Amino acid sequence: GTQPAAQPTAAPAAEPTTAPAAPAEEFTFGMVLVGPINDGGWNQAHYEGAQYVVEHVPGVKFIYIDKVNPADRPNVKVEQAIEELIGQGAKLIITNSAEFADGTNIAAAAHPDVFFIHASGDKVLTGEAPPNVRNLMGRMEYGKMIAGCAAALTTEAGKLAYLGPLIDPETRRLVNSTYLGARYCWETYRGRPASELAFKVTWIGFWFNIPGVTLDPTKVANDFINEGYDVILSGIDTTEGIVEANKATQAGKRVFAVPYDFAGACAQGEAVCLGVPYFNWGPDYKRLVELARAGKWEPAWEWTGPNWSNINDPDTSMIGFVKGPALSAENAAKLDEFIAKLADGSLNLFTGPLFYQDGTVFVPEGQVADDKTIWYTQQLLAGIEGQSAP
Amino acid sequence: MRTDRLKLAANLTRPLLALVAAFALTTLALLSTGVSPLEAYRLVLFGAFSTPVRLSDMIMLAAPLLLCAVGLSITFAGGLYNLGVEGQMIAGAIAAMVPLRLWPDWPPLLLWLLAGLSGAAGGALWALLIGALRRYANVSEIFAGLGMNFLASGLALYMVLGPWRRQTSASLSGTDLLPRDLWLPTIDRLRLAPAAPVIALLALAIVWWALTKTRWGLEVRAVGLNPAAAGRLGVAAFRRMAETLAACGALAGIAGMLQVVAVHHALIPNISSGIGLLGLLVALLARADPRWLLPIAVAFASFTVGSIQLPLTLGIDSAIAGVLQGALVLFALVARARVR
Amino acid sequence: MDQLWIDLAAVLAAASPLVIAAMGETLSERAGVINLSLDGTMLLAAMTGFAVALTTGNLLLGFAAAALVGAAVAAVLGLFSLTLGQSQTAVGFVLALLCTDLSSFLGAPFVRVPGPAVPFTPIPVLADVPVVGTLFFRHDPVIYASFLIIPATAYLLYGTRLGLIVRALGERPAAVYARGVDVTRWRYALLIAGGALVGIAGAAFSLDLKQGWSYRHTFGAGWIVLAIVIFGGWRPWRVALGCYLFAALEIVATRSQSALPNIPTQIVQVAPFVLMIFVLALVNLASSPAAMRRVATLPQIWQRPLLGAINRLRATAPAALGQPFERP
Amino acid sequence: MHIAVENLTKRFGPVCANDRLTVSFAAGQIHGVLGENGAGKSTLMKLLSGYIQPDEGRIVFNDAPRRLRGPGDALAAGVGMVQQEPLDIPAFTVLENLLCAAPPGVFRSRRAAQTALLELAGRLGFPVDPAARLDQLTIGQRQQVEIMRLLLCGAQVLILDEPTTGITAAQARALFAALRQIAAEGRTVLFVSHKLEEVAELCHTVTVLRNGHVVPPGQLPMPQPQEYLLSLMFGESGAAPPIYRPLPAIDAPPVWELRHVTARSGALHLVDLNHRFAAGRIIGLAGLDGSGQQVLLRLLAGQQAPDHGQVLVNGRDLTGAGSIAFRQAGVEYLPADRLHDGMIGALSLADHFALLQRNGLLVDRRRAEELARQAIAEYQIKATPVTPIASLSGGNQQRAMLALIPSTARGILAEQPTRGLDVASARAIWSRLQARRDDGCCIIFSSPDLDEIMEYSDEVIVCFAGRIGPPIPRALLSASRLAELIGGVGFDALVDVVR
Ligand SMILES: Nc1ncnc2c1ncn2[C@@H]1O[C@H](COP(=O)(O)OP(=O)(O)OP(=O)(O)O)[C@@H](O)[C@H]1O
Ligand SMILES: Nc1ncnc2c1ncn2[C@@H]1O[C@H](COP(=O)(O)OP(=O)(O)OP(=O)(O)O)[C@@H](O)[C@H]1O
Ligand SMILES: [Mg+2]
Ligand SMILES: [Mg+2]
C-alpha cells in the first residue's frame, strides 16, 4: 500500500562510494531476460548494464536467465525463473520486459525479503505492485526523436519504415516520438512539407521474432525495401532491420537503417547505419544495487532521461545516440544542432496541437504534454500509416 | 530351457542397447559443448526431484503430457498418426476460456466443470475435422493434423490479439490473468494443483480399461490393424476411427484446459507448448501400451523440468532434454525391429 | 507496374529454399520413400551450415556441411526404415523432433551472431534487361540454383533413363527388382540425394534468405514443403509453382497489416499452410468417385472441360509411396 | 539355349516346394510344366529366373553352372520370366516400360527402342501402341508387352507362368502362335499350366511336378494320354470326374433382387441389371478377369451403390445403405485376399468371435473362446483359439473365415473361395458351402477356374465385357460351351433367348 511517486524520480548524482571495506558477504543480483543476452539489442543492453555493475561495484555477483519467453522456453514462466535465481542466492532481481509485470509481482509478493526492479513496467505507478518492487525505464523518446531526425535528413525517397514490436502505450509513444523527430527535421532542414513524408509502421507482434507467432521481421523488412522505403527504423529487440538494409544495399539498392537499444548495434551493417539510440542501464543499475545492498529500498517508478551535457557519457547518461558511419558529415552537423535544441529545452516536440490518427486531440494547441499523457499514449499520431490500436 | 533364457537375454539386451545408444548420442552432443556430461545428466535426470517446487512443476507438466499420450494411445490403437494433437490442445484451451470469460462470477466449481466440458468438446471437434478431411477429402491425417495445428495456433493468436486482448496492449504474452478464485486450487508456494494429476491418472485408468476390456476397445484395435477386414466383420470402421480421434481430441482438450486454469491462468499463444508432440513421443515409446505410459510420461516430464537448470548452472541450452527424448524413441524403434 | 515485377522477383527469391527442399523431397518420394524428417533436417542443416561458414569463413564449406547433414539424416531414416523395416512415418517424425532439438542445443553459441552471407551477384548484361532482368537475373547464386533445379529435376524424372528407374521405384518396386535393379540400394541413393538437397535448402535460409541462426530459424518450412509436394502432385513444375504461391501468400500476409487495420495480421501468416491443405482437400474432393459420378450426369459440353480440369488438378501419389519393399 | 537343374531344392519353412529336382530343357522347343496347385511349378520357374535362390543344387545354362543373385543376372544370362500378373509399371507407357532399367547397350535411343518394338510386334503378330499407358491395357496385352520386353532385352529362354488365366481366347491363340514362332527362332519356351489341353496343343515335351518332385523323373515327350497325365498330376483319385447331383427345387423368396441397376467401375459399365438370386442355390460367376463379376459382387455386398436402380435383400430395399446394413440383413462377403481384406492377422480366432458379439459393453471372452473351440473342432482348423490368424495356413484361414459366418446368414458372396488351396482343402471348403446351401443360403461365387464352376454350381452366370448373362442351370451347360460363352461366342444369343 505504498503511494507511488507520480512524478518521476530524478536520478540522484552518484553517491560517493567510499571504498567499502570488503563487504561482509557477496551480494548476488539476478536478471530475467526476455531474449538472449547476445541479441544485439534490448537484452544485450541490459546484460551489459549488469556487467557494468559487476565491474564498478566490488563484491557483487551476477546471475541471469535469458530467453524467458513462450517460444524459447515453452514451459518456463517468469515466476519459475525468478525462483531459480532466488534459489541461487539472488537478493535483487531485475526483470526486463513489460510482459513480466504479473510474474514479477507474484514472485515479489512471495519473497518480500528480495528486491525487484521491473524494467519498463508501470505497476508501481498504477499501485498494483508489492512494496519491494521498483520500476525503471529510460526516456527513450529523446533517442527516438534523434533517430527520426537522422532518418528524415537522409531519406531520398521520403519514405521511412518503422519495424514495430507489439502494440502498447510504450511502443506507441516511441513510434510517435520517432515521427515527431522525423517530421521536424524534414520540414526544418529539408524544407519539405510533412505531407510528402511517408512514415509506415508494421508491427510484428512481439519484441522479437517468435517463429510462427510473430510476423517474421526479416520478411517485413524485405517488404519495406521492396515497397521503396529507404530508411528502416527498428523498434524491436533484434537487428533484422539493419541486416536486411545492409543486404539490399549490397544488392545495389540504397537503404539505410537505424537500429535500436544497444550501443554496438551498428556493427551488424556499418555501411548503412545512420546511428543508434540506445539504453545505458549500467549507472542506474549500479545505483539501485547499492541502494538494495544498503537496505535503503523504497518503491518508486523511475523514468530516467539522458544527461544532456553529454548524452553518450557511459557513467551518467541513461539514453544515448551513437552516430553511424552512413550519416553524412553535413547531416551529422544538422543532427547535432537538433540535439542541442532538445538539450537546452528550446525545442519540445510534444507541444500542441498534436492529433491522433482518428483526428482526436493528443495535445491541445498551445500546451505541452505532461509525463503521464506521454506515458499513456493512446494512438499513433496523424500522418503515420499503420495500426494504432491492437 | 536354454532357448528361453536366451530369448529373455535377447529381450533384455536390445532395449538396453537402445538405451546405451540414446545416451551415447546425447553424450556426444554434450561433449561438443565442453561441459561435463555427468553433471548435465545429474541435472536432467534428477533435477526435477531436487526441490519440492521443481517436483510440483514436473507433476504439472506430466499431467497434460500424460493426458495427450493417453489420448494418442487410443488413436495409435486405431491406426492413426494424430499429429494434430497440438492443435486439439489449443482448441481445448480456447474453448475452456469461453465460459471462464463469459461468466466469471459463477461459482468456480461449476465454471471448472464447464471449462472441462467445453475444452473436451473443443478438442474433440478439432480432431473430428481431421477425420472428415481424411474420410471425405482423402487428405492423410498427418497433413490434415498439421494444417489444423496451424489453424488452431492462428485462432489462439487471434483471440489473444483480438477479442481477448489486454486492456491497453496487444501483446503476444497472452490475455489478462484469470481472477484468482478461478485458478484451480493450488498447494501454497508449490504451483501444484492436485486436481491435474488426478484427472490425468483417471483418464489413464479409464482408457486402459476401455481399450483392453470393452468391445469398443477390441473394435478399435481391429480397425487399427485392418480397417477393410474389420468392416467386413461388421465393425463400423469409419465411425470407430472418428471416435478414436474424438476421444483423443477430448483428452488433449482437457490438457489444454488444465494449461489454462492450472498452469498459465491465461490464454497464451503457445498454450500447447509442444506438449502434444512430446506426447506423441511418449506414446510411440510406450508402443501405446497403457502400462508404460505413466512411467514414460513422468520420465519425459522430469527431463524437461530438470533441463531448465542447465542454462543456469552449466550455461548450455536446455534443448538437450529433447535430444535425449528423441534419441530414446528412435533407438527403441530399432530395438523393436530386431526383436521381431 | 514496376512494383509488381519487384514483388514477383521477391517471391522468386523468397521461395528459393522451399524450391530446393521440395525438389529433394520430390525425388525421394518419387522413389517411394517419405522423408518426414524434413523440418528437423532443415533446421539442423541451417545451423550446421551457418556454424561451419562462420568458423571457416568459407560459404561453400557451409553449404557442403549442410548437404552432408541432410544426407546423413536421410541415411539414418533409410537405415531404420529401408533396412530395419520400421515405419517411415514414425522414424521420420521422431527424427524431425530430434533434429530440431539438436539444432537448438548445438546452435546455441551461434544464435544471432552476425556471419557470412551469399553475395548478391547480378548477371552482367542480362540483369539490365527490363522486367526479365529484374525477375531472373538480379539475385544471388542460391536463387539461380533454385531456378535451375526445377528443370533439372523435371528432366531427370521425365527425360532420362535414370528417371524411369526413379519413378518405377515409387510405382512398382517389384517390377524394378525384376529388371535386375537393387531396389533398396537405389532408394537409399535417392533418399540421400534428396536429403542433401534439403540440407542445402536449410543453409539457403541461414546463409542467404534469413541470414544467421536463431532458435527454430526456418519455422515450419519443412512441414510446408511436405504439404507442397503433395499439392504439386509429385510433379516438379507444379511443386515449384506451389512454392511460389506459398511465398506470394506470405508477402500478402505481411502487407495486409496496413490494409486491414482492425485485424491482428499475425494470424494471416498461418493462412498459407491452411490454404494449401484446404486446396488439396478441394482437389481431392473434386476428383473423388462421387464427384466424378456427378460430373458424368452433366451435359456433354460441360463434362469434357470439367473432367480435363479435374484430371489436370488431380494429384496421384506414387503407388508404392511409403510402402516397404521386401525381396521375394 | 539349353537349361537344366540338378538336385535343386527350395524350402519355405516346413514346406519343401522343390525337392532335389533334376530336369533339363532343350533349346528350340516348347516345354510344358504341369502340376496341381502347390506342386512347386512357380517355385521352380522363379529359381530358374533368379527371383529366388535355391537352398541346394545348381542351375546349368548351356552346360555351365550359374549362380543367379537376382532376375537381372538371369536376364543377362538370357532367361526371362513372364509372371502370372505381368511385373510391369502400370503408370508407364509401353515404351517407358520397355526402356526402364533395360540392360545397358540394348536400346541406343527411344527411337531405336520404338523401332525394335514395332518390328518384333509385327513379327509376333501382337498389335501394340508404344504410347499407350499400361493401366489402360488388358492383362493379355500387358503380357504381350512383357514377352516382347524380355525378348528385346535378350532373353533366349522365355518362361511363362500360367499365361492363359485371365486372357481372352483370341489372345490365347495369338500367344500360342507367337510362342511357336519364338521357339522356331531357336529359343527355349517353358510353359507352366494346369490345363492339359493347352499343353497338348502347344508343347513338345512335358514335365509333371507333384509335391515338389518330378514324376516320373525326367521329361516326357508329347503327346501323352490325358488320363495318364491326370493320374501323374493328382495321383489315382484326382482324375475321377465330378458327379453332377441334381437339386430339388426350392420355393423360397429371392435373397437378392436387382431392379434396373446401372453401375460403373472404371471403364466398365453395367447397364440395366434385372436379376433375382434364389435361396438354396450355388451360383457360379464365370468370366474373364475384369468382365464385371467383381462389380456385381460389390453391388450385392453393398460395397458399391448403384448409379441407378434398386438393390433388394430379402425383399427389403437396401439401395445405398452401405455394407454394414447389408451384413445386418444377412449378407456375408468372403474376399479372395483373406489376410488383406477378410480377417485381422494379428488377432486370434477367439478375438474374431468376440468382434462378432453385438451386445454388451464388455467383451465376453469366455464365450468367444468357447465358440472358437467349437469352430476348431467342427471345421477341423489346425489352430488354438488364441493363435493369431496370420500364422494359420491358407486352407485353415479359409476355414476360419467360413466358421465366422453367422448362422443367420442368408446370402454368401465368395470371391475365389478356394484360391491357393490344395485339392483336399478345397473339397472341405466346398462341402461346408454346400451344407450352407442346403440350409437355405444363396451362395454366389466367382472363380477363374472353370472346372470349379462346373463342378459346384447349381446355376452359372456368365459375365462378358460388363454384361451379365442370365442364370443357366448347370445341367444345360457343358465345359466347352461355357468356355465359348466366356470368350463371347454365342453370348448375345444367350441373352436374347432369355429376354
Ligand atoms: N514365398 C513363399 N513363402 C512360403 N511358402 C511358399 C512361398 N512360395 C510358395 N510357397 C509354398 O510352396 C509350395 C509350392 O508353391 P508354388 O507356388 O511353387 O506352387 P505352384 O505349383 O505354382 O501352384 P499354383 O498352381 O497354385 O500356382 C506351396 O505349398 C506354397 O504354399
Ligand atoms: N476402382 C477402379 N478404378 C478404375 N478402374 C477399375 C476400378 N475397379 C475396376 N476397374 C476396372 O474395371 C474392370 C472390371 O474390374 P473388376 O475387377 O471389377 O472385374 P472382375 O470381372 O470382377 O474381375 P475378376 O475376374 O478379377 O474378379 C477392369 O478393367 C478394372 O481395371
Ligand atoms: Mg503357381
Ligand atoms: Mg477383379
Automatic annotation (TrEMBL), chain B:
Its main location: membrane. It is found in: Cell membrane. The chain crosses the membrane at residues 59-80, 87-103, 109-130, 142-161, 192-211, 242-261, 267-285, 292-312, 318-335. GO terms for cellular component: plasma membrane. Keywords: Cell membrane, Membrane, Transmembrane, Transmembrane helix. It is a multi-pass membrane protein. InterPro entries: ABC_transp_permease. CDD domains: TM_PBP1_transp_TpRbsC_like. It comes from the Bacteria. GO terms for molecular function: transmembrane transporter activity. This is Sugar ABC transporter permease. It comes from Chloroflexus islandicus.
UniProtKB/TrEMBL annotation, chain C:
The keyword Transmembrane helix applies. It holds the Pfam family BPD_transp_2. The chain crosses the membrane at residues 6-24, 36-54, 60-82, 89-111, 144-166, 186-207, 219-237, 267-286. It is found in: Cell membrane. Keywords: Cell membrane, Membrane, Transmembrane, Transmembrane helix. InterPro entries: ABC_transp_permease. It comes from the Bacteria. GO terms for molecular function: transmembrane transporter activity. It is a multi-pass membrane protein. The keyword Transmembrane helix applies. GO terms for cellular component: plasma membrane. This is Amino acid ABC transporter permease. It comes from Chloroflexus islandicus. The lineage of its organism: Bacteria, Bacillati, Chloroflexota, Chloroflexia, Chloroflexales.
From TrEMBL, chain D:
The keyword Amino-acid biosynthesis does not apply. One of its GO terms (molecular function) is ATP binding. SUPFAM superfamilies: P-loop containing nucleoside triphosphate hydrolases. The keyword 4Fe-4S does not apply. InterPro entries: AAA+_ATPase, ABC_carbohydrate_import_ATPase, ABC_transporter-like_ATP-bd, P-loop_NTPase. Transmembrane segments: none annotated. Gene3D superfamilies: P-loop containing nucleotide triphosphate hydrolases (3.40.50.300). Keywords: ATP-binding, Nucleotide-binding. It comes from the Bacteria. Residues 3-236, 250-490 form the ABC transporter domain. PANTHER family: CARBOHYDRATE TRANSPORT ATP-BINDING PROTEIN MG119-RELATED (PTHR43790), GUANOSINE IMPORT ATP-BINDING PROTEIN NUPO (PTHR43790:SF4). This is ABC transporter.
